[in-house]
Predict the structure.
Amino acid sequence: MSGSALVVEEPGPLTLVQDLGRPGHAHLGVPASGALDPDALRLANRLVGNPEHLAGLEVLLGGLALRAHGAVTVALAGAPAMLHVEHRDARHAGPGVAVAVPDGGLVRVDAPARGLRTWLAVRGGVATSSLLGSRSTDVLSGLGRALRNGDELPVGPAPLHPVPAVGQAPQALAVVDLPVLRVVAGPRADWFAPVALRALAGPWAVTSSSDRVGLRLRGPDLVRAPDGVRELPSEGVVAGALQVPADGQPVLFLADHPVTGGYPVIATVVRADLRLAAQAAPGTYLRLRVVTGPRLP
Amino acid sequence: MTAARWRPCGDAAALAEVPDLAAAQRLLAAVEAARERGELPGVLDIVPAARTLLLRCTDAAALEHAAAHVAALPLDDPAAGATTPGVPPGGEPVRIPVVYDGEDLAEVARLLDVDAAEVVRRHTGTRWQVAFTGFAPGFGYLVAASGEAGPGSLAVPRRREPRTRVPAGAVGLAAEFTGVYPRASPGGWQLVGRTGTPVWRPDAEPPALLAPGVLVRFEEAR
């Protein structure tokens, strides 16, 4: 339905508009940004009959309350959280189902029991303004900002597809104890001592100074090769890069990472496993496992 | 053949590493041209830097194809002068007025063993070109345009102690580079002046004034 909107009554700790990001601007210093678990946003969109690329909300640790202006249909995916609709007769639903919300209904998203982030899709998509081809909030570049009380989020026109008739969609589990993320050694593995590559296995503690820019990890010291101090000219980095500053404790870059960096990257997490990083809460642990990389000249 | 050393960045990206900035610029020009010709499907981002070019692709197969293709590209003869990626040769430089009252102007003059007026003369007398961006959206690393005997070097080291806050529009120097801070941020470059010309506007097309390849002239404003 055109002309509907969601009005923020409680934004929770951090709720951001996210779509599949803005690739293609890295040469201007702008990272791709976008949902930290793109597959979860795609699934939430499919559940309400949307094209997969429409913008939804990335909800960190729940606490979100939205008032529907006009009837809307919403669905959750990602870290399993309860969704409540408060209207005359309350309804409850978990992730993986489409829920119809009447005009004036209040949508609440609880904190997930485990994990960090849940994605909410609304039929028609969140139709806020787009910058550089995306509605994604990029906390590093200052594109967009976190939702606040009173923000009115326009909902786009309903897509042609109906809401699919699924009871509950199965989800690949991104919230697991002690997740193991696959990494490809490099691009600067040769800056490090062999013992550092073995130490990648961890376990690595996720520290509280982690955000969409990156996970700051604490664990074994990733010592450099003993051939003197070298200076690395800044070079392009990607999401998944494990950049190692002088203190030997790596930062795992996520979607809002700086596009270049001057510290050596010892290894890079494969894209499919970044969704595990999106759910790695401070105080939990993860492991890294080196796998074979692409065939290069 | 490009004598690049390839370094993987996960399963769908890689750095091509070359000996110096001039080689990186030639490689960028060749790769941009190949992309224009449609020879690099599946390449999402091409990120130039001082010694490297990052290719980020949709998947491993696209990366392997792109890397093999790039490795076989002929490079322009360095003796003929580097091409200017993204800008037609002889393109008009962007003009940026600068008030030369930076906090480090005297220190830069001391490091170069000249007076402040000579620093300004060299900065305004050099035709600059954006080699690459990074650090922050719209922050261009400008180098003296190739093939020109400039009015003298401005190469100075970064400040020993970075500033916690450099204002938007500050014009700085570091190594062979000059640049304009797009917004207030921490920064370690030697500040020689300031400009009111916005270099980053996310709602504009293009959003970055100083994109790779763009030529720049700084002009003294009083």
User: Anything to note?
Assistant: Residues 180-292 of chain A form a domain with the Cyclophilin fold (CATH 2.40.100.10). The mean pLDDT of chain A is 93. The CA atoms of residues 42 and 52 of chain A lie 5 Å apart.
